[in-house]
Amino acid sequence: MFIANLSVKEALDSLRTSEEGLSSAEAQRRLKEFGYNKLEEIKRQSVWLSFIQEFTHFFAIILWLAAGLAFWAESQAPGEGMFLLGVAILGVILINGVFSFWQEYRAERAIAALTKLLPQQALVCRSGKLQTVPAEMLVPGDCIVLEEGDNIPADCRLIESAGVRVNISTITGESQPKARMADAVTETSHLAAANILLAGTWVVSGQCRAVVFATGRHTEFGQIAHLTQAEKESVSHLQLEIARLSKLVAAFAAILGILFFAIGTAIGLSFWTSLMFAIGIIVANVPEGLLPTVTLSLAMATQRMAKRNALVRHLTAVETLGSTTVICSDKTGTLTQNKMTATQIYIHEQLVPVEAHAQYEHEIRLIQNAQYCHNLKKSLQGKHYVLLGDPMEIALAEFGRKSHDFGDIPVESEIAFDSERKRMSVVIEHEGVRWLYCKGAPETVLPRCRHIESRGNIRELDSAGQEQIITAQNTMAREGLRVLAFAYCRLEPEQMPQEREMTFSALIGLQDPPRPEVKEAIERCHTAGIRVIMVTGDHPQTAVAIARQIGLVKTEHPLVLQGEALRKMTGAHLHLLLESPEVIFARVTAEQKMHVVKALKRKKEIVAVTGDGVNDAPALKIADIGIAMGVAGTDVAKEASDIILLDDNFASIVNAIEEGRTVFENIRKFMTYILTSNIPEILPYIAFVLFKIPLPLTIIQILAVDLGTDMLPALALGAEPSDKKLMQQPPRPAKERLLSWGLVARAYLWLGMLEAAASLFVFFFVLNQSGWEYGVMPGKSDPMYMQATTACLAAIVMAQIVNLFICRHPRSSVFSLKLDYNPLLWQGILVEVALILLVVYTPWGNALFGTYPLDLSVWGLMIVLAMGIGLLEEGRKWIVRRYFSD
């Protein structure tokens, strides 16, 4: 039998307990049987395993192979420089791995979230005596005592109740506190039963006694937490793309290395020369700087997003957010202010906005009713007192104080609120006269009113007057307002308080108003091709009313789906209904919200989900992007999320999406920049084998570019500011590749070839100036040869400086882009120039990289060729803009 359907005695009997509680011995026995009242810890991946994984991805494996070959070659033929090469490659692996791990480790700070929401202590009755015990020691059958402000430690059945209202938003998402009572009910759901208290919620007002019937893993809270743990996290688009890029580049590098090792051997090169050549091909193909640059770029994006109130927990979430096509947004606290406010009032037989009625100071009875008819408590915070309790009562008290503050008047007595009466009353004495003030649901207050006050006159409340009040109530309800009726009566000095023959004074409509900036944010989403769907636990009328106010709903009849209907729906039916242009989900549970997200993902949508409660955690975890509220959010929701909003504001999501789109474009920019230099690094080796020329670039010089001069400029491209046009475009297709054929063609076949031609031209120019003849192979320490390789290296660096400006935009002219918007750009150039000068003109640079000082004439030639590359690319962009624009 469902415990909510039983009487108090039957409920206690079913748990083999009594109002005196369990004995200590029985409690200990049940603790062994049922276990501790706590949730299972989330299984986390070992820190060491995470660390090791940073050294086992495809890029790293190829570099491990190259280092192993270098050390083996050194053991077979000492003195060929292979040991230094092997050490350099190991350094690359170590720097990449440690840096990537550190960034992820910082972003993934471990927080034990699932146990924090439950209270640490509970007041329990054992053997007829009240005692405080750790909440984890509670067992089914324990009788506990709760009062206003207490968190509920386990699922309980009420056995005594006095004015209890409970905030259950963490479980159901409903913003309004719910009244609770001890009597048996007919509902068959823990979420709907009015005599059930759920773990993880809290008492807003009243006092009660309750018997525990479920603990730990078996509570509703525990079931949702289990759903969260059971669902696997989504793999981001960027993770998939980086994995794909790693495989492609690694496979290409390995195949090319083996192929040209075979070619070198076939044309008569020595084994060691062919091996060095193969290793060089591999090192030149693997963009060693790409992964740390991606990681750093994402880290910088997270810092920019933090300034816009979005804290990123997982680095790759930054890019995924930019490809979002659908946002499933919670209502309370995200689209709204999470603060009840009096917005409309029916007074003097007319319905007006609260701020439009300026005569409240004459409505003494109404104002005193709002100020004193509540169960709020005062708390000193700093130098000021604040009200604690039901948000609705706080809003009414503030309305009363704002109109006219009568100061502290003691309440003589109170007729408490309960779920059957749906009203409460207080008695106060003002200027020697006792007054009873009543507020509650209009349907329970109106029948007890005999008169109505209008503009200072009191007359009888007839049926026409009642009909007019009911019409006003319905109008306010359709606008999503919570409507309360206010009435009063004068008491004689010794008269017992009675709620009858009262005078009706007003209806007040309260609302959790939308955040003022949300409407513009919704409009930006629509402009950017992003669909917004409200998914809430609140009432459908409230949801639709808020949706209209923020511009989410514009048609007369939007599709409103309630949780109960959703529960009975097939997957195909839901799939078809999601095609509707305007959809709102109301009264949904945690599992139902998760089904909505799964259905959208089956439609190939990139789904971002917002939430703050325990009930939101499963949906947050399976979404492409989970966005938790930082202010009102529970730790469970934050743990399941990828991004935490520091201000709980929907507008911050839109700002974060703009940053995400910018990140994707910026990654493409610096990928173009980094991959371009691969071609002038590869072609010298191919020319060395095929045309029997001196090797124009050494392996250590390749690493000087990839992990030295290219790093900071690439980061500068990763920090490029947002292009405002990005939020005027639809989301990019889900299948769009990070490494597209267009990017490959531009980097490898156009810019890379131009750089290779320029660097080889400078190499041969220096050789010819020194009197070199074709077919002569100079020694590795020959100054003529060292100066030529130095010129080839410097020419690549000079071309990359120009390439930095070229890569800022794939179509727009360099001259149309402002240079002062990205200070890191100039810092990158200064560092790049400083590094190449150190490599060329310092003794340690010469010794480490095998370089030799260059004449000024060589620098002049390099600069002219680099500028020529820039002009050719400007010509290509002009042709694209002129003949291939959309």
From TrEMBL:
<feature type="domain" description="Cation-transporting P-type ATPase N-terminal">
    <location>
        <begin position="2"/>
        <end position="75"/>
    </location>
</feature>
<dbReference type="Pfam" id="PF00690">
    <property type="entry name" value="Cation_ATPase_N"/>
</dbReference>
<feature type="transmembrane region" description="Helical">
    <location>
        <begin position="248"/>
        <end position="269"/>
    </location>
</feature>
<dbReference type="Pfam" id="PF08282">
    <property type="entry name" value="Hydrolase_3"/>
</dbReference>
<keyword id="KW-1133">Transmembrane helix</keyword>
<dbReference type="GO" id="GO:0015662">
    <property type="term" value="F:P-type ion transporter activity"/>
</dbReference>
<feature type="transmembrane region" description="Helical">
    <location>
        <begin position="738"/>
        <end position="765"/>
    </location>
</feature>
<dbReference type="InterPro" id="IPR044492">
    <property type="entry name" value="P_typ_ATPase_HD_dom"/>
</dbReference>
<keyword id="KW-0472">Membrane</keyword>
<dbReference type="Pfam" id="PF13246">
    <property type="entry name" value="Cation_ATPase"/>
</dbReference>
<dbReference type="InterPro" id="IPR008250">
    <property type="entry name" value="ATPase_P-typ_transduc_dom_A_sf"/>
</dbReference>
<protein>
    <submittedName>
        <fullName>Calcium-translocating P-type ATPase</fullName>
    </submittedName>
</protein>
<dbReference type="GO" id="GO:0005886">
    <property type="term" value="C:plasma membrane"/>
</dbReference>
<keyword id="KW-1278">Translocase</keyword>
<keyword id="KW-0812">Transmembrane</keyword>
<keyword id="KW-0067">ATP-binding</keyword>
<feature type="transmembrane region" description="Helical">
    <location>
        <begin position="785"/>
        <end position="805"/>
    </location>
</feature>
<feature type="transmembrane region" description="Helical">
    <location>
        <begin position="275"/>
        <end position="299"/>
    </location>
</feature>
<dbReference type="Pfam" id="PF00122">
    <property type="entry name" value="E1-E2_ATPase"/>
</dbReference>
<comment type="similarity">
    <text>Belongs to the cation transport ATPase (P-type) (TC 3.A.3) family. Type IIA subfamily.</text>
</comment>
<keyword id="KW-0547">Nucleotide-binding</keyword>
<feature type="transmembrane region" description="Helical">
    <location>
        <begin position="83"/>
        <end position="102"/>
    </location>
</feature>
<dbReference type="InterPro" id="IPR018303">
    <property type="entry name" value="ATPase_P-typ_P_site"/>
</dbReference>
<dbReference type="InterPro" id="IPR001757">
    <property type="entry name" value="P_typ_ATPase"/>
</dbReference>
<keyword id="KW-1003">Cell membrane</keyword>
<dbReference type="InterPro" id="IPR023214">
    <property type="entry name" value="HAD_sf"/>
</dbReference>
<dbReference type="InterPro" id="IPR006068">
    <property type="entry name" value="ATPase_P-typ_cation-transptr_C"/>
</dbReference>
<dbReference type="Pfam" id="PF00689">
    <property type="entry name" value="Cation_ATPase_C"/>
</dbReference>
<dbReference type="InterPro" id="IPR023299">
    <property type="entry name" value="ATPase_P-typ_cyto_dom_N"/>
</dbReference>
<dbReference type="GO" id="GO:0005524">
    <property type="term" value="F:ATP binding"/>
</dbReference>
<feature type="transmembrane region" description="Helical">
    <location>
        <begin position="856"/>
        <end position="872"/>
    </location>
</feature>
<dbReference type="InterPro" id="IPR004014">
    <property type="entry name" value="ATPase_P-typ_cation-transptr_N"/>
</dbReference>
<dbReference type="InterPro" id="IPR023298">
    <property type="entry name" value="ATPase_P-typ_TM_dom_sf"/>
</dbReference>
<dbReference type="InterPro" id="IPR059000">
    <property type="entry name" value="ATPase_P-type_domA"/>
</dbReference>
<dbReference type="InterPro" id="IPR036412">
    <property type="entry name" value="HAD-like_sf"/>
</dbReference>
<dbReference type="InterPro" id="IPR050510">
    <property type="entry name" value="Cation_transp_ATPase_P-type"/>
</dbReference>
<feature type="transmembrane region" description="Helical">
    <location>
        <begin position="47"/>
        <end position="71"/>
    </location>
</feature>
<dbReference type="GO" id="GO:0016887">
    <property type="term" value="F:ATP hydrolysis activity"/>
</dbReference>
<feature type="transmembrane region" description="Helical">
    <location>
        <begin position="825"/>
        <end position="844"/>
    </location>
</feature>
